[in-house]
């Protein structure tokens, strides 16, 4: 079998389409070679070797060794060097590369093949001792850390101690002799930590590194990441072995990263950072502040260090030429890694670049306008969930800003929160319902959970391509990076800046738009949506079939929903209108009443309030459908809870506290979710449903008069399990409609339908549809009742179910397609066979979840309804589902 694929010299055995076999990095290195771009030659050991390795007790296929040797010889023939040779040694990098880029995998090892002999040859060949020994000490540090598992800090301490003794401040202050003096110390550290010498044999080094890459596929960080992102363990990683090129050969050498378009704003410009006389990770590690690539960017940043455009004009022009080729070829924004060795540019990686939602929108729309992609493709280029980022607040320009520090605007949006200094604290605070800003010197993959939990991230070190910046942009979290004037003291849990010390729990605000760090909470503005957003949404609206409605009951929510393009209200939860101000008193009076007359008296007080709410809602939604759900939650939820509240209500109602307590005890339920709620309330106390129906119809008449555009109210009966149940409630509603028609002289158009949220209702949907004019799938309750899992109690065990792969996802977030989905499918089919063209929608939390929206499209629902802020997400997801 073929386990190894070579690339280099304008050709390759692989290509971009072979990501499954070669991993993303390997496939794109092959593709760039095929395009004739300057790529150092190398080879990829396939992901199938990884699979083999784990299927065979961590051993390799027998043919592998020979194939690797042959590939090494191929690379040697292209470079004119020999791996392990004492005169003219080939040095390589060993790089991991899964199908999707995956933090948690082994870090790259550079300069592999160096030992006490080959380092001398490297020095002779380059005519530069300092360069050679600098490379060697980098190699010992990296290899020891990544392959041998010896912590960085041992080497850093030795280096710092050496620098202190010599009075050096920068690494670049060290001469060849200094590195020569340090290397034995490094080797001594290895011996002490490991009990054996640093491996001098290049073959041993190579296989050690290859083994470390495959081994890292099963380390905890990688497993955790796969779990979070649904990547199967069976995919495996590839290993790339590639001839070294050197960015640390003096002032005409450099290393850098660049994007073909600005990953924050989407602007069409070469965007990135580079460092002269540096290698690999130096740019992202934040050791020195990187320099701008273009002169325009340098002017904008005000940096006093020259841009690449100025410092290395030829290599810069070559980069410009190549980025044009790559973007045309991949038809998407590229994230590139490159190295300049003595003025010559080498490409080391390209991939579709991560970007903010704002940039994703702009890039998609502009690529379509440039004719590189179609409008349909543009729609698929934006992750619906990522739109969330755009819907986040920004700082009010008129607000007072007490600026503590400036950093880099690493990821847009603004956020306020209490300071925490580590990720576990961030997670704990989030669980406790507090908002935090995670403050770190720099972040690493171990901080992912803290970054998830935080409102925003602030680092004191690192550039626009640092870990914190990249990850925050991906998550859509505001981030300010490299705020160098802030001193963080992890032990004391404080930060100090401009003579002020803030401690854990103090509130700060970060502005990811300009890099400011501000004291205290600052006033924010709601986002405004226009430009590319509107364009892409327009394209999406053209192709989507399902309508998108919002779950809303307040005027504010209804307006927000309309602004975001909602085409109606899919769920108005009337109980939310019951809690307001002094209404709750009337509600409590109703609940406490001994008899129907007492209830009716209380309901009469509620009627004008409900009616006024509906008039406002109908006026805002004029002309659009509004689905109103009758009172749903168990009555006892409205009762006063504390002793204090009890007395307050008793007094207001002129009832005794004893009576109140007695009634509360009567209403107590062991399992309220399955208790006296939903249409069961209307069955026992039809007068409640009657009052609500009257309020709705009278409001419809009134709003129709006001706006001239009558709404068509859709009255929805919750928690129905049988047709007779629905019929009873529907009878009251219809009678009320007739009464209001007669009183007002206005002909009212309306519909009565039901929620399908119990398995029995889904199964009996055929007969229920004889009475119901529409169905709305209440997938929160349907999930609870189909799975027998209480959503409020699921936290303690549901995590184990997803971790152990028993459930593919949290069924309360993404619809359980197999079970709940089948019930929906059955109900849709049986409902339609009774009443062809019956209107079908979904109003659970799932209505705003892209994966669930895809499912809704597949069963042909007419609309999804979700929270107002998710309306744009649903519009885009519905379009993608329709394509
Ligand atoms: P990651 O997946 O973390 O980006 P890479 O394998 O891309 O890791 O390696 C990180 C960096 O190491 C590259 O961006 C490049 O600067 C440097 N590097 C990797 N291979 C080589 C090489 N053959 N020659 C010079 N530098 C290299
Ligand atoms: Mg890389
Ligand atoms: Mg429900």
TrEMBL record:
Q: Where is the active site?
A: 467 (tele-phosphohistidine intermediate), 843 (proton donor)
Q: Which GO terms describe its molecular function?
A: ATP binding; kinase activity; metal ion binding; pyruvate, phosphate dikinase activity
Residue positions annotated to bind Mg(2+) are 757, 781
Q: Which cofactors must be present for this protein to function?
A: Mg(2+)
Q: What class of enzyme is it?
A: transferase
Q: Tell me what reaction this enzyme catalyses.
A: pyruvate + phosphate + ATP = phosphoenolpyruvate + AMP + diphosphate + H(+)
Q: Does the keyword Metal-binding apply?
A: yes
Q: Does the keyword Nucleotide-binding apply?
A: yes
List of residues binding substrate = 573, 629, 757, 778-781
The record places domain Pyruvate phosphate dikinase AMP/ATP-binding at: 61-299, 315-364
Superkingdom is: Bacteria
Keywords from the UniProt entry: ATP-binding, Kinase, Magnesium, Metal-binding, Nucleotide-binding, Pyruvate, Transferase
Gene3D superfamilies to which the protein is assigned, alphabetical: 1.20.80.30, ATP-grasp fold, A domain, ATP-grasp fold, B domain, Phosphoenolpyruvate-binding domains, Phosphohistidine domain, Pyruvate Phosphate Dikinase, domain 2
Q: InterPro entries from the xrefs?
A: ATP_grasp_subdomain_1, PEP-util_enz_mobile_dom, PEP_util_AS, PEP_util_C, PEP_util_CS, Phosphohistidine_dom_sf, PPDK_AMP/ATP-bd, Pyruvate_phosphate_dikinase
PEP-utilising enzyme mobile domain location, by residue?
435-515
**Domain named PEP-utilising enzyme C-terminal: which ranges?**
530-881
Query: What's one Pfam family the UniProt record gives for this protein?
Result: PPDK_N
Give the EC number. Answer: 2.7.9.1
Concerning its family, UniProt says: Belongs to the PEP-utilizing enzyme family.
State its role.
Answer: Catalyzes the reversible phosphorylation of pyruvate and phosphate.
Protein name stated in the entry:
Pyruvate, phosphate dikinase
Organism, per UniProt?
Microvirga thermotolerans
């Amino acid at each position: 079998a073929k386990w190894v694929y070579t690339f280099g010299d304008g050709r390759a055995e692989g290509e971009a389409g072979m990501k499954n076999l070669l991993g993303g990095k390997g496939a794109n290195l092959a593709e760039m070679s095929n395009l004739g771009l300057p790529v150092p030659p190398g080879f990829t050991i396939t992901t199938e070797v990884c699979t083999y390795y784990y299927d065979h007790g961590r051993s390799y296929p027998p043919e592998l060794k020979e194939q690797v040797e042959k590939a090494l010889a191929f690379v040697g023939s292209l470079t004119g060097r020999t791996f392990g040779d004492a005169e003219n040694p080939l040095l390589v990098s060993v790089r991991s590369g899964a199908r999707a880029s995956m933090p948690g995998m082994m870090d790259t090892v550079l300069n592999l093949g160096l030992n006490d002999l080959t380092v001398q040859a490297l020095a002779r060949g380059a005519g530069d001792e300092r360069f050679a020994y600098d490379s060697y000490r980098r190699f010992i540090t990296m290899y020891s850390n990544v392959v041998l598992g010896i912590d960085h800090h041992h080497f850093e301490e030795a280096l710092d101690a050496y620098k202190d003794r010599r009075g050096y401040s920068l690494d670049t202050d060290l001469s060849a002799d200094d590195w020569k003096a340090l290397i034995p110390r490094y080797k001594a550290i290895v011996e002490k930590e490991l009990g054996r010498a640093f491996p001098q044999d290049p073959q041993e080094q190579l296989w050690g590194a290859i083994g470390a890459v495959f081994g890292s596929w099963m380390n905890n960080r990688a497993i955790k990441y796969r779990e979070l992102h649904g990547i199967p363990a069976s995919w495996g990683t590839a290993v790339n072995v590639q001839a070294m090129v050197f960015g640390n050969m003096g002032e005409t050498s450099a290393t850098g990263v660049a994007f073909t378009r600005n990953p924050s704003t989407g602007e069409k410009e070469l965007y990135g950072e580079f460092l002269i006389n540096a290698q690999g990770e130096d740019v992202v590690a934040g050791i020195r502040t990187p320099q701008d690539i273009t002169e325009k960017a340098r002017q904008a940043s005000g940096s006093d260090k020259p841009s690449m455009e100025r410092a290395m004009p030829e290599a810069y022009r070559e980069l410009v030429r190549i980025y044009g080729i790559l973007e045309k070829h991949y038809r998407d924004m590229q994230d590139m890694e490159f190295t300049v060795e003595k003025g010559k540019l080498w490409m080391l990686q390209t991939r579709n670049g991560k970007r903010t939602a704002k940039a994703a929108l702009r890039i998609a729309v502009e690529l379509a306008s440039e004719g590189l992609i179609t409008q349909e493709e543009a729609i698929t280029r934006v992750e619906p969930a990522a739109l969330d980022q755009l819907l986040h607040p920004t700082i009010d320009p008129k607000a007072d800003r007490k600026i503590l520090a400036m950093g880099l605007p690493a990821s847009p949006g603004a956020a306020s929160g209490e300071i925490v200094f580590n990720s576990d604290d961030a997670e704990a605070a989030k669980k406790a319902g507090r908002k935090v800003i995670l403050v770190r010197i720099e972040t690493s993959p171990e901080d992912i959970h803290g970054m998830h939990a935080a409102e925003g991230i602030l680092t004191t070190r690192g550039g626009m391509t640092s870990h914190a910046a990249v990850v925050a942009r991906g998550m859509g979290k505001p981030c300010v990076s490299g705020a160098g004037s802030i001193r963080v003291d992890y032990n004391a849990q404080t930060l100090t800046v401009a003579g002020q010390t803030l401690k854990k729990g103090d509130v700060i605000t970060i502005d990811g738009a300009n890099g400011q760090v501000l004291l205290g909470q600052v006033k924010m503005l709601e986002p405004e949506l226009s430009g590319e957003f509107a364009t892409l949404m327009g394209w999406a609206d053209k192709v989507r079939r399902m309508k998108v409605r919002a779950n809303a009951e307040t005027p504010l929510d209804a307006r927000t929903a309309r602004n975001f393009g909602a085409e109606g209200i899919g769920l108005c939860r009337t109980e939310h209108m019951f809690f307001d101000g002094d209404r709750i008193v009337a509600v409590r009076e109703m609940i406490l009443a001994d008899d129907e007359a007492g209830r009716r008296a209380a309901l009469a007080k509620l009627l004008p309030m409900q009616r006024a709410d509906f008039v406002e809602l109908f006026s805002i939604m004029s002309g659009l459908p509004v689905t109103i759900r009758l009172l749903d939650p168990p009555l006892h939820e409205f009762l006063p809870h504390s002793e204090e509240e009890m007395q307050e209500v008793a007094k207001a109602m002129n009832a005794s506290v004893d009576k109140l307590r007695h009634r509360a005890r009567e209403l107590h339920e062991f399992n309220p979710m399955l208790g006296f709620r939903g249409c069961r309330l209307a069955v026992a106390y039809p007068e409640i449903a009657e009052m609500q129906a009257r309020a709705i119809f009278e409001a419809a008449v009134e709003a129709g008069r006001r706006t001239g555009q009558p709404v068509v109210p859709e009255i929805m009966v919750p928690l129905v399990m049988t047709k007779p149940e629905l019929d009873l409630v529907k009878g009251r509603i219809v009678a009320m409609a007739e009464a209001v028609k007669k009183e007002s002289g206005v002909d009212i158009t309306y519909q009565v339908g039901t929620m399908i949220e119990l398995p029995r209702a889904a199964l009996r949907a055929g007969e229920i549809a004889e009475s119901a004019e529409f169905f709305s799938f209440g997938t929160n309750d349907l999930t609870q009742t189909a799975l027998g899992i209480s959503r409020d109690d699921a936290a303690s065990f549901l995590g184990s179910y997803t971790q152990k792969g028993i459930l593919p996802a949290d069924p309360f977030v993404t619809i359980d397609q197999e079970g709940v989905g089948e019930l929906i499918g059955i109900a849709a089919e049986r409902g339609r066979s009774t009443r062809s063209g019956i209107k079908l929608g979904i109003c659970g939390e799932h209505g705003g979840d892209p994966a669930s929206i895809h499912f809704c499209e597949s069963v042909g629902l007419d609309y999804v309804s979700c929270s107002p802020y998710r309306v744009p997400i649903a519009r885009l997801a519905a379009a993608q589902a329709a394509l």
